[in-house]
Amino acid sequence: MKQVLIVEDDPMVQFIHQSYVEKLQLTFECSCCDSIAQAKELLIQKTFSLILLDIQLIDGNGIELLKWVRQQMIDCDIILITAANEMFLAKQALNYGVIDYLIKPFSYERFKQAIDKYLTKQQVFQQQQVDQAKIDQLLQVEQVNEEPTLALEKGLTKTTLATIIQQILLCQDGFTIQDLVEATQLSHVSIRKYILFLEQQHLLKSEMVYLKIGRPYLKYTLIEPNHPLIQNIFK
């Protein structure tokens, strides 16, 4: 059974924290105290897995107890609970390794989220070996998609971009905006937006073609047809 220490000087809030813990229906046993001095005595006498620690206590600041726990190398996790919203307190708490930081008033769902984070950490630490996936789980790191993707600007869609690129890939000797207009049945304005976007991504190059008769025109060429950004458009 895991031992939980609730350090809170308001009896009503202390009761709420304890009822939240009991509502989880886990193998937790709660002890309560209302001061730093009492908390130190209990931590010396008994082994706790988790501390729910308020900042404003009758004999000092909860950060002091947090520092003391770390200095004494006491192996337990701490969730800091406070009505204070000063950033410097949050920074101090995080620097001393709290597993979560709850600002009153908070919901039962947010409290449960903090406990779930604690349980995840405990589960990871029970394993004998570590790998990157376990570290990411421990640090709440989301899996990163390492494949490069195009972040489309407002007004552009992946479907239309894929249609345009598909036509561009067929134009091995280069193309004009008019070529794409005729092939896709899109407007000149729309085609220009997508061409400009592809140029900004350094996927197209353009050159001015001068004629003996008639107006010059811009001819575009795809720089690297097998570029990962191009290939990922069709996934």
Offer a concise description of the structure:
This protein has 235 residues and is an alpha/beta fold. The protein has helices at 11-23, 36-45, 62-71, 87-95, 108-125, 132-138, 158-170, 177-184, 188-200, 228-232; strands spanning 2-7, 28-33, 50-54, 56-57, 60-61, 77-82, 100-103, 204-209, 217-222.
Explained architecture:
By secondary structure, this protein is an alpha/beta fold. 45% of the residues lie in helices and 18% in strands. The chain is built from ten helices and nine strands. It has helices at residues 11-23, 36-45, 62-71, 87-95, 108-125, 132-138, 158-170, 177-184, 188-200, 228-232, and strands spanning 2-7, 28-33, 50-54, 56-57, 60-61, 77-82, 100-103, 204-209, 217-222. It has a five-stranded parallel sheet, sandwiched between helices. A two-stranded antiparallel sheet has the order 4-5. Helix 1 (11-23) links the parallel strand 1 and strand 2 (28-33). The longest helix has 18 residues, at 108-125. It is rod-shaped and about 95 Å long. 18% of the residues are buried. Mean pLDDT is 86; it is low at 141-146.
Labels describing this entry:
alpha/beta; two-stranded antiparallel ribbon; 2C-system_Tx_regulators; Arc Repressor Mutant, subunit A; phosphoprotein; five-stranded parallel sheet; DNA-binding transcription factor activity; activator; CheY-like_superfamily; about 240 residues
Per DSSP, the total helix count is 10
Quaternary structure of the protein: single chain
Amino- and carboxy-terminal Cα gap? 49 Å
CATH architecture of the largest domain: 3-Layer(aba) Sandwich
Q: CATH homologous superfamily of the largest domain - what is it? A: Response regulator
- For this structure, the CATH topology of the largest domain is Rossmann fold
